[in-house]
Amino acid sequence: MHTNKKYSSDKAEDERASHVNRRLFxxxxxxxxxxxxxxxxxxxxxxxxxxxxxxxAVDLGSGDIxxxxxxxxxxxxxxxxxxxxxxxPFSGMTDMEKTILTDIRDHEIVHREFFxxxxxxxxxxxxxxxxxxxxxxxxxxxxxxxxxxxxxGVAAYNGAxxxxxxxxxxxxxxxxxxxxxxHAAVIRDLINPKSADFAxxxxxxxxxxxxxxxxxxxxxxVKGYVKDTITGANVGK
Amino acid sequence: MDxxxxxxxxxxxxxxATGRLEYASRRxxxxxxxxxxxxxxxPTAFAAIxxxxxxQSAAAVDVLNYALTLEYLEDEFYKGGLAAAxxxxxxxxxxxxxxxxxxxxxxxxLVKALGAKAIAKPMFDFTYKGAFADxxxxxxxxxxxxxxxxxxxxxxxxGQAGVLIADPQILExxxxxxxxxxxHAAVARRLAATLLGAPAMKGWIxxxxxxxxxxxxxxxxxxxxxxxxxxxxxxxxxxxxxxxxEPLTKDAVLAIAGPFIKG
Lengths: 237, 263
Fold this sequence. Notes:
By secondary structure, chain A is mainly alpha-helical.
């Protein structure tokens, strides 16, 4: 099937194209865009600190830039996870599952590249994920991890919303979080089809609300999935 | 501890203060008290909540009543669907019971948060002036309307986020409901795709694809943060538009919802 070829070559294509597109994106951003201007004006003074002796420490920065870098960090992890899921599919992955997981991978890559371009020289470096604990050959393990990442992403964006000062950034976060919630629901429905789990009582409270979790707690929760040490003490401050 | 004195003082200024304190800020309060603060710090925490509750602006009240209108609509819609004989097949009941439960919870939360300021429940016409005449007898129509209502709800909440930026706790509640509506939308869309024989319709919105075109206007937007991101990371237009959900203004949402509301 031609799609198999597409999947196997996708990674290299991504890298080439993202290089080209990033340059295009940045040149247009520098000229005319609102976002580019905002970033220059409000771009905070905090640079990524490389703490001596801790080459892998990554500081997300402060204020809105910190929030955007926080989102960028989470999107990096998600994109890397789904790229690996599609590069080495679990045994018995159905066509429907492959379509869904490929769609999600592409959305996460778009999110990652969007933040990277928007942050420009304020962006944190590319993170090194650590998925050693995930058995990519197992459907249960992969969908379980996907569920965790999506639910965590939703809770992270929900918790970061009130930290954002610029309404344009708040809207952008809103545009992305509902897509993450759609992912979460579909993954949960793959795990337990036609059940109440897509918005299950394990994650939605008695007011019918999703979780909203502060950056410090999210960073602690994803710590095991990234080799770098991420510090987000000033995110949104 | 003088918590009760504080409540009394506010009660004299605003008869609804207790209700607003209790409901609008309850979760914030409980989280703080339950997790982080020693009991000695409770009066301070409580004072902070009092300030927060009173920071609920007139704009926030408008947004909450707007949300309540939509939640009343959704709640009544699922109550009607779940009560209709032979409409929802047994295989799909769990899904709609869960969605219906959340909509009832959203209504209850908003009514309590708004207290005396909550609007009354309007009368609804779920046939949409006849366009969905068989909404409670034809499962295809029911699921189509469900997916449309949920996607509209997502767009509606998203459109109000900026208005709530000065009311951080209300903003957070709105976001927490917003993502639940998105979860609902995803499963309703997938059910609709199967029933309508539209495999291109997914849990996420491709371009402006959807069962009711008016509701999806603008979802094909590719300008994000002021930048056209067509072709970003060499991804297709489909993937780029799916990756971002778009807001709707209050006017646009009310125009869509209008035919459902008899007044």
